[in-house]
Write a structure and sequence with these properties.
Elements: E1 2-6, E2 8-11, E3 15-21, E4 55-57, H1 66-77, E5 83-86, H2 91-104, E6 110-112, H3 115-120, E7 126-129, E8 134-138
Parallel strand pairs: 3-4, 4-5, 5-6
Antiparallel strand pairs: 1-8, 2-6, 3-7, 7-8
């Protein structure tokens, strides 16, 4: 079954991957290893999970502006999430993706969804993000 969600593209781009869902915000600085893509914040519900190549679904980014650099480095290393979906705009995350696009010609698409649509995404759903912010959701049985 496929659903189509209409979101706002904060950083436009196309991507697809399996949903890695958190209902908690995450600071990438101290929360994501930029060399491996592992969630390393041991107090976070996704601790030990790998974001590399997945669509990271979290309400917003938390914490330091160093999260931009962490996202930038994870993109450079090839271990960044395929895309990020948030409930509200996270300027620090957008900055990391935009700078990566300028430096490495690689960006992580970032989309903001309404609360209803955000909470409809479940762990391991297959997501296809389009440049206009459309998110196609295929729920796995």
């Amino acid at each position: 079954m496929e659903r189509v969600l209409s979101g706002r593209a904060v950083v436009a781009g196309a991507a697809e991957g399996t949903a890695l869902v958190s209902r908690e915000p995450l600071s990438l600085w101290g929360g994501l290893c930029p060399r491996t893509g592992e969630i390393i914040d041991r107090r976070h519900e996704l601790s030990g999970s790998y974001a590399a190549g997945k669509v990271l679904v979290m309400p917003w980014g938390r914490g330091s502006s160093t999260s931009s650099a962490t996202l930038l480095e994870s993109i450079r290393a090839g271990v960044a999430p395929a895309a990020i979906i948030n409930l509200k705009v996270a300027p620090i995350l957008a900055l990391g993706s935009i700078v990566s696009d300028e430096l490495y010609h690689k960006a992580v698409p970032i989309v903001v969804l309404s609360e209803k649509d955000f909470f409809s995404i479940k762990q391991d759903d297959h997501l296809n993000i389009e440049p206009d912010g459309t998110v196609k959701v295929e729920t796995r049985p």
